[in-house]
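Hey L., structure's done. Input below.
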Amino acid sequence: MSLTRDPYQAGLARLKELAAEPRGGRNEDTTRFHLIDVLLTECLGHPRSSITTEEHAHPGFADYVVSAPGRLLVIEAKKEAVTFSLPAGLAGRPTVSIASLRSDPVTRATIDQVVPYAQRLGIPLAAIANGQQLAVFLGSRTDGKEVQSGEALVFVSLEDMIEHFRRLWDLLSRDALVERRAVQVLSMGTAHPQPPIKLSSTIPTYPGFRSRTEQDTDLRILSTIFIQDIEGNAEVSDDFLKECYYNSGTLSQYAFISKEILRSRYNSLPTAMGLDTEPVRGKKGLSPSFQGDLIAAAVTSKPIVLLGDVGVGKTMFIRHLLRVEASTELASSLVFYVDFAREPALQSVLEQHIVDAIVAQLEREYGYDLMENKFVRAVYNAELNKFKRGLHGPLRETNPERFAELEIDELVRLSSDASRHLERTLRHLEATAGRKAVIVLDNIDQRSRDFQDQVFVIAQALSASLRATVFVSLRPSTFYDSKLRGSLAAYQPRAFHVAPPRVSEVVRKRLQFARKQLEKERESSSGLSLNSGDLSAYLDALDAGFLNDNALAEFLENMSGGNTRLALEYLSAFIGSGYVDTQRILRVAADGDVYTIPIHEFIRAIVYGENDLYDPRSSRIINLFDVCIGDAREHFLMPLLLAYLQTEGESQGRDGFVTNEVLYPAAQSWGFLPEQIRWHLDRGVTHRLIETDPGHEQNGPYRVTSVGAYMQKQMVTWFAYVDAMIVDTPIFDPSVRSEILDVRGIEDRLDRGSVFRTYLDGIWESFPSPESLSFDWNIKGAALQADIELARAKALRAKSRR
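Output:
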């Protein structure tokens, strides 16, 4: 074969011809036609049939989309004169951080234009090009990392492409895109043999949308009103706080990890991080130390820090404390609540935002108009008396009108600084009415670290200047980080930690409260397809399910991982889901019975969400069987890691963390590469299956969470879960792949599930000593097959009834 017929040599030769052509002056269309089209088709070997232009990206239009056959690369083209500059010294490197690329305003704008296209179209690779330069990066990631945190393959000129043509070809040619080499290099640092395509990439309508009935839609609306958003509502009633609050600190009986690790997670973590904290509650209620600090904080001028993981109920605890539990002690106090999750505040005007919020609440909640004439005069009475004794004092007799004008000018001056005026107002109210200030700065841990640091400095100032009791809520890891290197390093705040409540009990309280609300407000269902009786029956079925079905309680307790906010999101996703037979629930209720919610209905509603098929980009549930390279044994790497972390962590009898020095050699002894291990650990942390010790600078050590334990112990045995994952799992055996099809009927899906289970059985046999591993697929696979047969029997009974 001649060199000219060799696609690699032909591509290199054509690239040299491009580099020899005159440059400059081409507009965007000409750049695309003369340069980018040629680069893709004649230099890199992509058939024109695999390239589409101006594809609608909802909104916007992608300049190029390259497929092979699934869409793999989206390119944003600019005219030749729009160059992408790199910081000095970075030219010539094989990869450059996207953060460095974004330091150039033109490049940043182009990257920000193409990334949404990649994410909306589900395309892994994104690129920016001007015909002379090319930068390629991961535009749509499934490992939970931000696009901006990644690296980019950069070619700064056509000469650079010629000099490094082997690298350009090996990563971006037709065959390289099919093998996903660039994706591997950008996500793992090196290229490995690629897995076969997933079933999902062959389904034109993937992931689809699950249709709902009118009743389902109405239930979804009502679930938002009664279940999900009620805690975030600042106007929530005292009745809700009394009936729905559940004391924290009770360890779940359904947890799939040991109680020792649970205790370590919620009680010992602050100590392990070197934090001087104690529980906010004891067995008999609020801890004496916390009760004392509730009053003494105003004297000691130290904010009270409430620590707790996301969703454990810090906000609920604070509101219940202020309005119910400590309402008597705080009856004469002025309580101000600033929620940074709901109320936007620019960091540059943060102090003014807090001041404005307190001023507004003083007027709205307590009836104090800070600029009302008599009130202002009372606040600055001492200053007015001094003014009367001053140089302008004689004017009171000789020119009373002029004196009044000057006095008003003085009051305006005194009250013009909003922050100082608020400080004087609160001191005045404390001195004259005995009303101390209690200020809550909530949900700041949902903002950046710099933002949190600034809030804490303001909290310290408020506590000192106003002699106010100031609460600040934070995550333990955030507090530790700021204590180590942020603004908290200069202070010694009082800190208490809030342990999570029992999730299943929180859910039951919410359901019971929702039912009472329906009984009180029967008109709330007017205009909906469901009457209040139907809604009550539906809520009764849910309540009975969590009361009587351990499987439902186990699922919610473990998969929420102590995050009550997430648990309520799961509940809301179930209510009104297209995967739930609402009519059947209501028919059973009409017959005088309560419908028993099967676990598979709950799982399907959570796993699929709004989609017709499982999509890892939108589902909160991870696919344990996914792989990153062409290694079929990797189907079991995530379950193996989770099981090992649990077994090894619990055997220590301490905090459950396993170091990298122990974990990596173990996983490598199973035959896996460090890149594979790192990929799965990163996914595990992102999806909350694994947590790291925040007291360490580097990734690791690692500890399994209740989510990870439940996934590897129980979830893999549910047909409803495995059935969903099949479309997202590459099948390495061609004969099996031909049997794994896009089927929708229950009998066909059950047959497909059995085929998939047998396929995994065969791969498991390749492990040299599976009996020595913490995870045993032989046991899990048998349990999965039993669940398949149970589902088959139910399907047959349902078919015979029809």
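The chain is about 50% helix and 10% strand. The mean pLDDT is 84.

-- N.
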